[in-house]
Design goal:
Blueprint (H helix, E strand, L loop, with lengths): L1 E4 L2 H5 L2 E2 L5 H12 L9 H13 L3 H11 L19 H9 L3 H14 L15 H16 L3 H29 L5 E4 L2 E4 L7 E4 L6 E5 L17 E5 L15 H6 L1 H9 L6 H8 L3 H13 L3 E6 L2 E6 L1 H6 L15
Helix pairs in contact: 2-7, 3-7, 4-7, 5-7, 8-11, 10-12, 11-12
Length: about 325
């Protein structure tokens, strides 16, 4: 159990990442390749990823370099997921290249305490060897992460809209209280069943916490092992179940509104902007704007301008339409 201790200042500095962190997603996706857990939720990705790895001849690098560095174990080196990756893959890879050799050597030594590592891995502390790792990470991302970028962003857009509403209506404490079954908010402590397993306490001490929703993280959140690093908590998005009925052409809602508008109404469930809707429904931003105008004029959604964007939300009538009897299906699935 990881116990994260908040002060009032920490609550005010808690924030949510608005896009996937490429290096954390690389780490979590490599864990998915190593485990049967949750395979149903990533079945399509798993097939495509294995095919892409074979086609691009990345198998040796994945087996001999990446998986040993990112084992599905209680620890993998913190330097592999630097904060700079929040600004994009290139920034994160540059940070890996710039990691002091002593830190690389120390963290690989920590990994060796929980998992056998090839002796040659210590050579990554040498600045002239580390570019090989960066090249492998970039190629792996291009092959198996980037093709799913729009899908990942759409899921995270929906998560941010949902958590943003929690923050708006109940502040940081409501946001922390709704993060999922693996996290329990007992003010002023967030109790987390995390990957790591060892009981420990993390005192934020006014630094705040960056919450990073992750497409490939499964069931249990992940955090840095080093308490002196900027505090982050990578946590899994809620698993999706069967495809929502509004996307099917034969449902009453689709027959009433048309497939695209029915899908847009579903996408607006937790609030969404035109660009978020466009990604979720695979239409252009202009097309999304046209359809949201029709839905707004019909009284099904309301639109609110915030800075340079417009947030669309359901009206009571729109919410009622989404609760048609034939759509009351369970989306829960058991882990395989």
């Amino acid at each position: 159990m990881l116990r994260i201790h908040f002060t009032t200042e920490d609550l005010s500095r808690t924030r949510l990442a608005a896009r996937p962190d490429p290096l954390w997603e690389i780490a979590a996706s490599l864990h998915r390749l190593q485990s049967q857990l949750g395979r149903w939720a990533y079945a399509s990705w798993h097939r495509e990823a294995r095919a892409a790895i074979a086609t691009r001849q990345l198998g040796v690098a994945v087996r001999t370099l990446l998986i040993p560095l990112f084992p599905r174990a209680t620890y993998f080196p913190d330097f592999l997921t630097p904060a700079e990756a929040g600004h994009g893959l290139s920034s994160g890879l540059d940070a890996i290249l710039g990691t002091p050799p002593a830190r690389v050597r120390h963290e690989i030594g920590l990994l060796a305490q929980v998992r056998k590592v090839p002796t040659g891995m210590y050579r990554l502390a040498d600045n002239d060897v580390r570019p090989e790792l960066v090249t492998a990470l970039r190629k792996y991302h291009e092959a198996v992460i980037a093709p799913f970028g729009d899908r990942m962003q759409a899921r995270i857009d929906a998560e941010c809209a949902r958590r943003g509403r929690d923050l708006l209506h109940g502040g940081a404490e409501r946001l922390l209280g709704g993060l999922g079954p693996a996290m329990r908010w007992r003010a002023p402590v967030l109790e987390v069943e995390y990957v790591g397993g060892v009981d420990r306490d993390l005192h934020l001490g006014g630094r705040g916490l960056l919450l990073i929703p992750s497409y490939f993280c499964w069931q249990k959140p992940v955090s840095f092992a080093d308490p002196d690093l900027p505090p982050v908590l990578l946590y899994p998005l809620a698993p999706t179940g069967p495809t929502a009925p509004p996307r099917s052409p034969d449902t009453p809602l689709s027959a009433l509104l048309g497939r695209t508008r029915a899908a847009i109404l579903c996408a607006v469930t937790y609030g969404a902007t035109n660009s978020e809707i466009a990604r979720a429904v695979s239409v252009s931003a202009a097309n999304a704007s046209h359809h949201t105008a029709v839905l707004r004029d019909s009284g099904l959604i309301a639109s609110h301008r915030h800075a340079n964007t417009v947030l669309h939300t359901l009206t009571p009538l729109g919410a009622a339409l989404l609760r048609l009897p034939d759509q009351d299906r369970s989306t829960s699935m058991q882990d395989s």
